[in-house]
Amino acid sequence: MGLAAGHYLATSKPALVYMQNSGIGNAVNPICSLLHENVYAIPVVFVIGWRGEPGVKDEPQHIFQGKTTLSMLDCLELPYAIISDETSDLSSHIADFKKHLDCGRSVAFVIRKDAFSGGEKNLYASEAEMSREHALKMVLSASKPNDIFVCSTGKLSREVFEIREQENTGHSRDFLTVGSMGHSLMIAYGIALRKPDKRIFCLDGDGAVLMHMGNLALAGANNPPNLVHVVINNGAHESVGGMPTVSTSFNLCDVASALGYKHSFRVTTQSECLSVSEKITGLNGAIFIEIMCNLESRTDLGRPTTSPVQNKNELMAALRE
To answer: Residues 148, 201: contact at Cβ < 8 Å?
Structure first.
């Protein structure tokens, strides 16, 4: 939202902001307190992917988001047009939207599933040795029976679930954060504060870390002795197409150390991953581990067969033990 506002201030032209509908929640504050016509009247054209549209099969974390998408836009006073694969002409919508934009009001195109087709898929790559799934297997195999894992959204949680299935170790020690990107660290930190007798792992992604980097500052400043923050850094938002992040342009370990994490390690090979997994046993203070990975993932990767509520209940039962 800030970037779009800066563009408008410099050019007098509205910016186009593309997001999934989960992004609406993250954008509520600047929409209300920056863009709105009662504040600065800065117009933006939103293009919003409608995940979880009622009647369309989708993942649990998208269902309520999809159900409330249009009502949220109404509440935010954003005029919108719904675009589907049957939409052939946008001219009437554009003409109507221009009136709003000229008055400093933002507008939104809500895009149904499969509304667009064609175009070449961008391919991104990393030269890192390990895949994320391989790295996760090594971290999980080096854990103790009492350890708890909070896993970030996307393919990371799906891979953890399948590793547990393959090894028949159960899922009661894992919290799969299927939505709420960027919040896994604070979930893990919250558990760590209340369960000081257990070692709590946050299995994170570089995109998620960048999304809410202030969480690192809080965890580092308070330095919980039983928190292990593992960031799988493949330099991309791999779960939604592989678009690159900026995480390979600087050293996340240096950031974590500067913010107060007591121990930090950067891992680039399998042997280093095994060595660090053994080295952290007995260390006191918040631990940060950055594991450099490639963008490889299995085409047959499944999804959790348990519901989020089942996952929550099993974990809470394990935490009570």
So the answer is: yes
Residues paired with residue 203 on neighbouring β-strands, in sequence order? 151, 230
CB 304 within 8 A of CB 293: no
User: At residue 82, what are phi and psi to the nearest 5 degrees?
Assistant: -95, 125
62 beta partners: none
Cβ neighbours of residue 300 under 8 Å, at least 6 residues apart? none
Asked if residues 308 and 60 have their Cβ atoms less than 8 Å apart, the reply is yes
Cα angle 126, 129, 131; round to 5: 80
**pLDDT attached to residue 207:** 94
Instruction: Name which of 199, 140, 194 is nearest 164 in CA terms.
Output: 140
pLDDT for 269-310, tens place per residue?
Answer: 999 998 998 899 889 899 999 999 999 888 899 999 999 999
- Rg for the chain, CA atoms, rounded: 22
Where are the strands (E) in the chain, listed by range? 15-20, 44-49, 80-83, 107-111, 148-151, 174-176, 200-205, 227-233, 236-237, 243-244, 263-267, 287-292
**Full-model pTM:** 0.90
